[in-house]
Amino acid sequence: MTAATVLQKKRSARTVRHYLCSYKKFIDYLSIYKNKYKVSSPDLHRAATVLRVLSMSLTRKVQGEKMKKREEITDDLIPVEDQQRYLTLSKPEIKQISDIIHDGHSPTEYQKSYLRNYIITSLAIENSCRAGVIENLSIKEYKKRTKIDGGDNKDLQQPRT
Length: 161
Hints:
Elements: H1 3-10, H2 13-32, H3 34-37, H4 41-75, H5 80-102, H6 109-127, H7 131-135, H8 139-143, E1 145-147, E2 157-159
Antiparallel strand pairs: 1-2
């Protein structure tokens, strides 16, 4: 598949910017070996300037694409009613597992999985992020989280850095 074919199919600012970065690396390579390939310094400078201007003009378009993607993700968030329903329906099972643990007994594999999934789902809902991020979250990182000020939802949290 040629570069032109990829650009015709994707036509996104990110794809074009990726190709511009590749061309910049090529120009950097030529500037090192300009004597070997008989390329003049003014020509290399002109090419680098053109690529820099094109790249700068694409920055705004890339930012626009990122914002559009964020809006799409926000539109797909779980409604508050569904969140509350999930938490309410899960409470009896979680209470039963909690009682088993407090009594000194070991929960079944199903109950362990249920509890793990409940914790991951609750954290994902509470923090509005992907479950994969939370699966790698340590207890230490969870304890260090801080509230994010601003916006309508004061309960959103992020790890402290």
